[in-house]
Amino acid sequence: MKNRGGRFVATFFSLILPAILVLLTFRDPVSGQVIPVWKAIWPVFGATNQLLAALALMVVTVWLQAAGKKVWYVIAPTAFMLVMTVWSLGILVFEARTAEVVRWVAGFLLLLAVVLAVEALRTFIGKLRMPQEALEAAE
């Protein structure tokens, strides 16, 4: 308990950004109305949460495969979460009513999701081929 004040400083800094987002407003480029900033970024926040769930499921799938366990019961939820999240991010990127900042953040998240999905797929397929390659090397 040497640094007891650190937890209060950390709490302050973790609460200051949400407080700023609640208090700030900006003009919606489509409707021209003034709306709170949190309302503008809410869709990308939801997509980010779902992307995190999809990435966690991808990690579990690859880990189970590497451990030699069955993965069939994880693949369908993983694919569903990933497809729906990428679809949602795509809508945010290409929809005309999306604020410019949200469009850029959604585009960046979409790019990261695709890169991570490709890497997970490469790892998963590599683990599927590894036993066959090991058998061929042993011959």
Domains, number:
1
Strand segment count: 2
Estimate the helix proportion, in percent.
over 70%
Strand content: under 5%
Cα radius of gyration in angstroms: 21 Å
Helix-and-strand structural type:
mainly alpha
Gross geometry: flat
Number of helices: 4
Gap between N and C termini, in Å?
61 Å
The run of helices and strands is: HEEHHH
Low-confidence runs of at least 5 consecutive residues: none
Secondary structure topology:
Elements lengths: L4 H19 L1 E3 L6 E3 H30 L5 H23 L5 H39 L1
Antiparallel strand pairs: 1-2
Helix pairs in contact: 2-3, 2-4, 3-4
In short:
The chain has 139 residues and is mainly α. Helix content is 80%, strand content 4%. The chain is built from 4 helices and 2 strands.
Can you give a write-up of this model?
The protein has 139 residues and is mainly alpha-helical. It has one domain. The chain is 80% helix and 4% strand. It is built from four helices and two strands. It has helices at residues 5-23, 37-66, 72-94, 100-138; strands at 25-27, 34-36. It has a two-stranded antiparallel sheet. Strand 1 (25-27) and strand 2 (34-36) form a beta hairpin. It is flat. The protein starts with a helix and ends with a helix.
